[in-house]
Amino acid sequence: MLPPPPTASVLRDAGVHPDELITWQPTELVWRVHRTTGGHVLPWNGMRTHGPILRFDHHPRAVGDHPGYGIWYGASSPRGGLAEAFQSARVIDREYGDPYLTGLRFLRPLGLLDVSGIGGAAWSTRVGGNHALDCAPHRRSQHWARTIFRAHSDLDGVIYRGRFAGSVSVALIERATDAFPARPALSLPLAHPALDGPIATAAHQLGYTIT
């Protein structure tokens, strides 16, 4: 069970050791699956200000629009992006909402707090928590996210393991807005024939179905 976080001042005093910070390089691709039609659609590089809803949303507690608080989620692999986007029904729907798979490279290195021990460190345990940040109820991990970003004003986000694909994922906040490129490296609708093979492979590995 994940305990509540310490205060922001305690986290600030604990600091971040060099091996607890992962620098995401501009040469590395990040993947996102996103709808392009329907309600509440954001562009591929758009920060969501409505929240808190998902795991590391750092918006104030009352769910609603919070200008000045932005969040963006991405995965290190297309499979990771598909796993997270279609986790609720475990069905990869290639048509509804005209979903796209987009891959991008950021314009500058990103400083990401390693909350899952991906780099071998144990920040979460050292400061009084544990690695359940990856899978704890969202309300609790959101509390941690709010405290983390109040304590450390130089972070662009956190890096963690996606709960469904187990792959590396990132959650970026508004401080990383300037790192987004004007155009993605690749962006294709999920219905594109070129994605038939990759989607079928991901669905097989995840145990998802395809429509």
Question: Explain this structure to me?
Answer:
This protein has 211 residues and is of the alpha+beta class. It has one domain (8-210). It is 21% helix and 22% strand. It has helices at 8-14, 78-85, 123-126, 138-151, 196-206; strands at residues 21-24, 30-34, 50-51, 64-65, 71-75, 91-92, 100-104, 110-114, 157-161, 168-173, 186-189, 209-210. The strands form four sheets. The protein has a five-stranded mixed β-sheet. A hairpin with a 6-residue loop joins strand 9 and strand 10. Helix 1 crosses helix 4 and helix 2 packs across helix 5 (196-206). It is globular, with a radius of gyration of 17 Å. The mean pLDDT is 97.
Question: Which term fits the overall shape?
Answer: globular
**Approximate helicity band:** 10-25%
Question: Approximately how much beta-strand content do the residues carry?
Answer: 15-25%
Give me the number of helical elements: 5
Q: Please, what is the average pLDDT?
A: 97
**Helix-strand makeup class:** alpha+beta
Output the helix-strand order: HEEEEEHEEEHHEEEHE
Cα(first) to Cα(last) distance is 36 Å
- Radius of gyration computed on alpha carbons: 17 Å
Largest sheet strand order: 1-8-9-10-5
Counting DSSP E segments of at least 2 residues, the number of strands comes to: 12
Low-pLDDT windows of residues: none
Reported for the largest beta sheet, the result is: 5 strands, mixed
> What count of domains describes the coordinates?
1
Question: Which oligomeric state applies?
Answer: single chain
